[in-house]
What does this fold into?
Amino acid sequence: MATSSDKSKDAKLNTFRGGPDERGHFGIFGGRFVAETLMPLILDLEKAYNEAKADPAFKAQLDYLNTYYSGRPSPLYFAERLTEHLGGAKIYLKRDELNHTGSHKINNCLGQILLAKRMGKTRIIAETGAGQHGVAVATVCARFGLPCEIFMGATDVQRQKPNVARMHMLKAKVNPVTSGAGTLKDAMNEALRDWVTNVHDTYYIIGTAAGPHPYPELVRDFQSIIGKEVREQMQAAEGRLPDTLVACIGGGSNAIGLFHPFLDDESVKIYGVEAGGHGIDVENGHAASMTGGRPGVLHGNRTYLLQDAEGQILEGHSISAGLDYPGVGPEHSWLRDTGRVTYVPATDKEALDAFQLCAQLEGIIPALEPAHALAFVTKLAPTLPKDNLLVMNMCGRGDKDVFAVAGYLGMDI
Amino acid sequence: MTKETRIDRRFAKLKREGRKGLVTFITAGDPDLETSKKLLLGLPKAGADVIELGMPFSDPMADGPAIQASSLRALKAGQKMRDTLAMVAEFRKQDDDTPIVLMGYYNPIYVYPNAQFITDAVAAGVDGLIVVDLPPEADDELCVPATAAGLNFIRLTTPTTDSKRLPAVLSNTSGFLYYVSITGITGTAAPDVNNVQKHVQRIKAATTLPVAVGFGVKTPDQAKALGQVADAVVVGSALVGALEKSLDSDGRSTSKTVPAVLDLVGSLAAALRAA
Ligand SMILES: Cc1ncc(COP(=O)(O)O)c(C=O)c1O
It folds into this structure.
């Protein structure tokens, strides 16, 4: 293991964009820790993905869907009032909440459904936390005529009702998961159990840049359209690269999508914001796996995890169902240890405050997930000079959270 | 290869006696440490030839409802890895022949951490390991050092393991090979004997290791049928299911708990011996 961490130092001398290696490792992180039943399938998936990447027709089809189905590119919007209010960095919002289905999750789902079709799979499964990924999966399944089943923790079914209704309307079967605390980790366990049972015809669309290799890589690649667009859009708007990037971290897919194209641009400072829940010092009261966890192995990869001294996984807590996950994608763990990206927590309360600030100053109701990113922006921006170009990924809209937030704020609806 | 283990000796003995082995799975610490110790000590006499002792994990992704519940009961009762190893050490004082294989998931071992776990497992008298989420691709982490320390590393092979992949699964496997008779999680579908026979024959053509068959075996009749096509039969979910049924309404063990499990072991063993 000492040799692997030396490797991550070596990588620093060359590039931060070279991972993973052929075994799916980012330094000591990543890998393929799955039951034997799934191994042949995961090896097939890797092969299919490598072929798809090299096929211009695959890229053309994905580009077409991104443009005409999703509505990409999403705007890079100068948030004038927020900038004025915070009195520091010039704040841009990458408006991925304007995508079809309301979040960045569709970027990944369009890529993966095309892969599933290439592999001849006829049934789709997925896990979901906030329901945004579930909705995006149900959407692409409707579009491509494949049946799908979504696993969602029973707690999340309760707190994200509008998305459950949307999934039903899209003809997805939603399976509430009651094991554990009934949140994202339990939904993922149950999706994996379904997958080992139905490997012959089933494709698992993982919703974040985590899981066994090649998922972290392929999800990142499909989400990297976010960062690629930001490069071009910032060039057009300001004639240069941004100085600061901020994104929220659940499993880390929207964040890696924004960060990856900039990892080798040394001048760009990068921040990932984890769910600080009730506070990072509260035992099992947050979902900040990199700020408050240790490396371990779960759901197919080695990564930072919330766990007790015995290696039992903790449930964690966040006000946001999409960030309520005890792990994180392995590439983030590696970026943390190499120091390329700084990871910080934002609490439930800070996210709720930022949620309201954004709605009231910009007329944008954010999802609770990017509200965490914004909470950190409200602390960081005032410390930066006015010519600092800051991009925050507004990765989802708040429609799904309206009822829950109204409840927290004691509003009558 | 390496030096002979209790597992090797046990399968050699079964062969000499011309019978098929019964491999029993229980979770260490389920429903509590004291009851679990009694169960463990009672298994050989009830008819278990090889014991798989589950190391409980919060997220048993390859297991069905019965073993999930069993794992959670053990964790709720406070079972720690140290307790599991101590159970084996205590068992060894009374039984130096029956092999014990620790079975579970990687994370509790990884954080122990690996090198210390291997040392302590060997010292306790553990004979083999099954780590569900550690494929041959990761052999350098645990399998290779554990084997060097004298433990058998037992691998699962499944209906999806085709001839191309089988050599990878067999490499570094020792003791026996565990054929997972269904695609799926533990304790769900019933295996189809003809299908299992085909796969076991294919595996036997590629290795001299004994082959045990499990996942989904519930009744003495099923055990008997599968015993005709393999060297041993593994039963787990049915045992922890019987345990669960014997608990009181608060989930505590009762006077029926130990006999409920051991009686089932007895009837499974009798069926196999009659095969
Ligand atoms: C809007 C939104 N943002 C972020 C996330 C967290 O996922 P990730 O970290 O993979 O972007 C979710 C997950 O459900 C989400 O719905």
In short: Residues 119 and 219 of chain B are 37 Å apart (CA to CA).
